[in-house]
Design a protein that fits this description.
about 100 residues, four-stranded mixed beta sheet, 4 strands, about 30% strand, Ribosomal subunit interface protein
């Protein structure tokens, strides 16, 4: 599985953040990672320097093999919290989508 992290100009996307993002998403998805060819994480500070609650947006796009890309978005106060929330939403979405395939 390929992993790519993208950040806006307000969030510094260094190697440490990339490692944290990849481990957070991979641990949340668990066994589902083997069914994915690629994960893209986009982090943005929607308010810029102004600050505020829930101003970090985490958008995660997963590319399941043989399926259309699946995307979720989560807003939270910190980068880590936004990553965890987005990863939980993605796991729920993928469990649902793979479950639908299993019923066919």
């Amino acid at each position: 599985m390929q992993f790519q992290l993208n950040t806006d100009a307000n969030i510094q996307g260094d190697d440490r953040l990339a490692e944290v993002a990849e481990s957070t998403v991979a641990s949340a998805l668990g066994h589902l990672t083997s069914r994915l060819s690629r994960i893209e994480v986009h982090l943005a500070d929607v308010n810029g320097a102004k600050g505020g609650a829930d101003d970090i947006r985490c958008t995660i796009e997963a590319r399941p093999e043989g399926m259309q890309p699946q995307t979720v978005s989560h807003h939270d106060a910190t980068v880590e919290a936004a990553l965890r929330g987005g990863a939980r939403k993605l796991r729920s979405l993928l469990d649902s989508e793979f479950g639908k395939l299993g019923r066919r």
